[in-house]
Amino acid sequence: MTLAITPHARPPRRLIARMSSLTGIIVFVALPVLAQDGTGPTPKNAQVRSYGSGWTCDLGYRVDGADCLKLVVPENADATGRSSGTGWSCRHGYEEVSRTSCQPVVVPANAFLQSSGHDWQCEREYRKVGDAGPGRANEDWDQTREFQSH
Known about the structure:
Largest sheet: 2 strands, antiparallel
Helix content: 10-25%
Order of helices and strands: HEEEEEEEEEEH
Structural class: alpha+beta
Radius of gyration: 26 Å
Number of strands: 10
Number of domains: 2
Strand content: 15-25%
Distance between the termini: 81 Å
Oligomer: single chain
């Protein structure tokens, strides 16, 4: 009797290598999530979770290891309640600049503020050419050349 090896059979070494890679990816993705999980004694400016175990920082604070640090919320921004990112977002009509401040969205002539409140859009028969970008002054570009009638 002869033993036939099918072309679809994979050597065990290859399977073990793939499983190790998959396990590494799962650990790499899961560890940052677990690091943000408040476990251990409840620190100042935190409250015990109403479900499961652990704690969450109060609004206006973010997780930093085993502590809750006060968020520095810039003018024209509100705390989001999220412990990731800046922990705040700019109000309607303002845009985030360098993750430190909120500046008014400059809306040029022949344009209007979008409903998101964080950008502008040209009126009909005009098109945007270039971009001033967040935090850049209007003198970086010429509005009269930015909008051209079709």
